Amino acid sequence: MEYILNMEDINKSFPGVKALSNVSINLKAGEVHALVGENGAGKSTLMKIMSGVYQPDSGKIEVNGKEVKIENTKKAQALGISIVFQEFNLCNDLTVADNIFIGRHKTRLGLVDDKWVINETQKIMQYMRLDIKPTSIVKMLSVAEKQLVEIAKAVSIDAKIIVFDEPTAALTDNEIDRLFEIIRTLKESGHGIFYISHRLEELDKIADRVTVLRDGRYITTRNRKDITKNELIRLMVGRELINQYPERDSEIGDLFFEIKEIKKNKVFDIKDIKVRKNEIVGFAGLVGAGRTETARAIFGADLCDVMDMYIASKKITVKSPLAAIDEGIGYLTDDRKENGLALRLDIEKNINMASYKQLTRNSFYSQHMANKNAEKYIKEINIKTPSINQIALHLSGGNQQKVVLAKWLCKGCKLLIFDEPTRGIDVGAKYEIYKLMRELCRQGMGIIVISSDLPEILGMCDRTYIFYRGQITGCISADDISQEKVLECATNVKNDFSGRL
Amino acid sequence: MNQITLFYDNFKKTPLFKLISRLSILILLFLIFSVSTFNFLSPDNLITITLQVAIYAVIASGMSFILIVGATDLSAGSIVGLSGIICAILLRDYGFSMAAAILIGLIIGILCGIFNGITCTYLRLLPFIATLGTMWVFRGLTQLLANGQPVTIRNENHPEVAEIFRFIGSGRIGGIIPVAVIVALLVAIVLSIILNKTVLGRNIFATGSNTEAARLSGINVRKTTILAFIVGGVTCGLAGIMVTARLTSGQVNAGTGYELEAIAACVIGGVSLAGGEGTVVGAVIGALIMAMLRNGLNLNGVNSFWQQIIIGLILIIAVAFDTFQRRKTS
Predict the structure, then answer these.
(1) A241 reaches B (C-beta below 8 A)
(2) Contact B238, B186 (CB under 8 A)
(3) Is the pLDDT of residue A500 over 50?
(4) Where are the beta strands (DSSP E) in A39-88?
(5) ipTM score of the complex?
(6) A501 pLDDT higher than 50
(7) B173 backbone dihedrals φ, ψ, rounded to 5°
(8) Is residue B68 one of the residues assigned to a domain?
(9) Can you tell me the distance from the alpha carbon of B148 to that of A349, in angstroms, rounded to the nearest whole number?
(10) What CATH homologous superfamily does A5-237 map to?
(11) A145 at the B interface (CB within 8 A)?
(12) What is the domain range of residue B206?
C-alpha cells in the first residue's frame, strides 16, 4: 500500500525540551488516522512540522513517495497538506468568505471577484452542509461556527491530507456529529485525515488506525478495532512513577472554603468543591476542560454568572482580584511570564506588588520596609538570587515561581490557587516547589493545584476533582487515585452522559 | 420581537452600522448648524468647508490604510512639508515642468512611505516610534533643503507655473466646484476601490486583523505593511503639492500637525487604531465632521480655544461609544 504521507525518524527540540525523538508516522489515502497522547506528548508539534510551521531538526518526510521539505505553510498547502489548528487562526474583522479565500482571492482586472469568492464559499458550505452565510463577519459567529469556518478553509484548499487538531473541543454533540459526517465524506473521496483528540470515545466513531505518542516518543500504531480503550489509556500514561514528591506531614483540618456553585454560561458549571485547612486539592482534566477558567472566576479575574462561595461558612462575593485578595485568595497564574510577573521589574517590586499599600509610612512608600519584606521572603522560601534588585526576567523558572508565591504569602493569603505550578521548571526546582506547598499546608493554608501533569496530581493532592467540558466528572481521594481513573473521568469514558449536563 | 432585537444586536457589530452612525452625526451637525447659524447654508460657506476639508481628507484617506494594517504614521505632516518644498524648489530654481515636479512630489511621498514601512517591518520598530523618528527626519530635511526660508513662486518670474498652481490650489471648475475638492474626491474613490476591491485591500484588512493568521495563510505581511505605508506616503505627497499650490509657495512648516488631524478624522470616522477595521469613506466623513464643526463654531463666534476643547471631546466620545458598544455585545 502506497502512503500519501510518510514521516520517518522525526526529531525536534525546543530550548530545554526534546519535543519529538525519532517519531515515525504514515497516512494512507481514504483513512482516518488518530493520534493520541497526553498533553505535551508531541502531537501538536508533529502536526506543526507537517504543516510547515516548525522545521524538524532531522528526519525524512515523503509526500506521495517523493521526499519533500516543507519550509512554510504555503509550501504545505501546495503539497496538499492542510491543517485545522487548535487555536483559531481567523481574521475576526473579515467576512467568512474572505477568511476562507484569504491569500487566494480570484481577481478580474485587478479587482477582487467578490461574486466568485462568495459563490465558491457557498459551494463549500453546501458540500459541508453548513448554514453559515459567506458574508457574515467572523467575529459575530459563535465559537463552534468559527471552528467550522476553520475546517471549511482547510477543505477549500483541496488538500489531500487534512489534519484536525482537537476539532471537537468547542463543538456541541450535534455539531460533532456533523463534523464526523464531513470527515466521512472527505474520507470517501480519497482524502487522508489525521485526527488528534483527547476524547477517546470519539475514536470509535471515526478512526481507522491509532498511533500513540508519549513524552515525544512513538509508542505504537494499531488498527482501531484491535485495541481497547483501557489499553489505549495504559499506553498513553505508560511511564513509571519515581517518588519525587515529599510526604504529607500534617493532618487535614476543618472545612474552610466551599463552592456550592460557580457558573459561567456555556463555559463551565462547577458544583460542590470543598477545600479544608492543611489540604491540597487538585483540579485535573484536559486542556480546555475549564479548570483555568474556573480558577480565574474564583479569583475574580473574569466575571461569572453564578457565584455561591463560602469562606469559613461566610458567603463571599468576589467581583475583582482585589476583592479576592481581601478575602485571602491568591492565584498563581499558569503563565508566569505573561500575567504572573512584571518581568522587567526587580524581585523586590514583584514580591511587594500586592502589598504596596501596607508598605507605607506616613502615607509615603517606605523602600526600607519594602526591602526588609522582600529579604524576609527571599530567605524564608529560599529564592536563589544575588540581590533583591535582580530583574525577574533573569531568574530561573523555579525561582520565578517562588517570587510569585512570595507575593501572595506576604499578602497573608489563606487559599492559594496554583495553576500549572511546575510547567517549564526542571526536576530539582519542582521538588522545592512541592516542599513549599507542603510547608504552606502545615501552616494551615488550603491549596488548589491545577495541573495537567498527572504524576504531580497523584503525588501531591489529597483529593482531586476531575474536569470534563466545564463539569466535574469525578472526585477521587488520594488513597483511591490512579492515572487510569483520572483519565477515565477526564475523557469521560466511563460516564454515559457524554458531556451533556 | 426577539428576532428583531437579535438582528439589531448583530447589525450593531457590523462596519456598516459604524459608518451609518458617523454619517448620522454628520447630518445631525449639518441640520443643527443649518437651523442655528445664519450664513451656514450659503453656497459660499459650503464650498469653503469642502475646500478646507479637501487636504485633510486626502491625508486621512491614506492614513486609513496605515491604521487598518495595524500601524500608525506620525510623519504624515512632515511628508506633506517635504514633498511640497521639493516641488516648489524644482519649479522655482531648476525649471522643471509642472508635470515633472508633481510626479517627483508624489515619488517623494512613495519613498518616505517605503522608508517608514521598512523601519516598521524589517527593522521591527514599533510604528509609533519609527514614524516619530521620521517625523523629525523629514521635517529637518525640508528645512535643510529650503534653508529655513519659504520657497515662493512669483508671478513675474514664473507666470505659467503660478497660473497652474492657482488653478490647482484655489481654482474652480465652472466657477463653482474647487479643483482641490475634485482631487480629494478622486483620491477617496480610488483608495476606496483599492481597499475594498483588490487583493491588496483584503491583505491589509487581514494583516491588521490578525497578523499571525494572515502570515499562516500565506500572505506576505511585511510587503502588505510597506504597501500600506506607500499609499499613505503618496497621499501625503499629493497633499504637499496641494498645499504648495494653494499658497503658490512652499513653506517649511507646511503640514505641521496634519498627521494628528488625519488620525483624529480616521478615528472619528470609525477606523480602528488596533487595525483590521475601517473605511476610506469613514475617514472622509470624519474629516468632514471636524471641518464642519470648526466652521459652524466659527460662524457662531465660538473662540478657537473652545473649538479645540469641543473637538477633543467629540473624539473621546466617538471612541468611547465604540468601545462601549463592543463591550456590551461581547
Answers:
(1) no
(2) no
(3) no
(4) 58-63, 66-67, 81-84
(5) 0.74
(6) no
(7) -90, 130
(8) yes
(9) 49
(10) P-loop containing nucleotide triphosphate hydrolases (3.40.50.300)
(11) no
(12) 43-323
CATH number where B47 lies = 1.10.3470
CATH for A252-328+414-428+440-495 is 3.40.50.300
What distance in Å separates the CA atoms of residue A344 and residue B260, rounded to the nearest whole number?
A: 32
Question: Where do the H-state alpha helices sit in A134-250?
Answer: 143-156, 173-188, 200-206, 229-237
Specify the domain boundaries for CATH 3.40.50.300 within chain A.
Answer: 5-237, 252-328+414-428+440-495
Which tens digit of pLDDT belongs to each residue from B213-266? 888 777 889 999 999 999 999 999 999 999 999 888 999 999 999 999 999 999
Output A321 or B106, whichever has higher pLDDT. Answer: B106
Residue B64 pLDDT level (bands cut at 50, 70, 90): very high
Give the minimum alpha-carbon distance from A76 to chain B in angstroms, rounded to a whole number.
Answer: 10
Please compute the mean of the pLDDT values over residues A376-391 and round it to a whole number: 86
Grid coordinates standing for B224?
502588505
The cell for A313 is 461558612
Most confident range, picked from A278-287, B145-154, B234-243? B234-243
Q: Return the C-alpha cell found at A144.
A: 463552534
Please state, in angstroms and rounded to a whole number, the distance separating the CA atoms of residues B92 and B101: 10
B15 and A137 within 8 Å at the Cβ level: the answer is: yes
Cell of A401: 515561581
CA A373 – CA A75 distance, rounded (Å): 56
Cell, residue B296: 459652524
**How would you classify residue A79: left for phi > 0, otherwise alpha for psi between -120 and 50, otherwise beta?**
alpha
**Rg (alpha carbons) of chain A, rounded to whole number:** 25
Does residue A78 belong to the interface with chain B, where contact is any CB pair within 8 Å? no
**For the packed helices B127-145 and B98-121, what is the interaxial angle rounded to 10 degrees?**
150
The count of structural domains within chain B is 1
Spatial separation of the C-alpha atoms in residues A271 and B138, rounded to whole Å:
63
Residues of A in contact with B217 (CB under 8 A): 73, 89, 102-103
Closest residue, chain B, to A139 (C-alpha)? B13
pLDDT digits (tens, 9 = 90+) for A81-119: 988 876 667 888 899 999 998 878 888 888 888 899 999
CA distances from A354 to A319, A358, A413, A416 (A): 17, 9, 11, 14
Residues in A touching B212 (Cβ below 8 Å): 89
- Could you say which of A88, A102, A114 has the minimum Cβ distance to residue B206? A102
Alpha carbon distance A329, A308 (integer Å) = 15
The distance of B130 to chain A (nearest Cα, Å) reads: 23
* A402-430: pLDDT as tens digits: 898 888 888 888 899 999 888 767 666 77
Residue B51 lies in a domain: yes
Q: Which amino acid belongs to residue A390?
A: Q
Chain B contact for A103 (CB, 8 A cutoff): yes
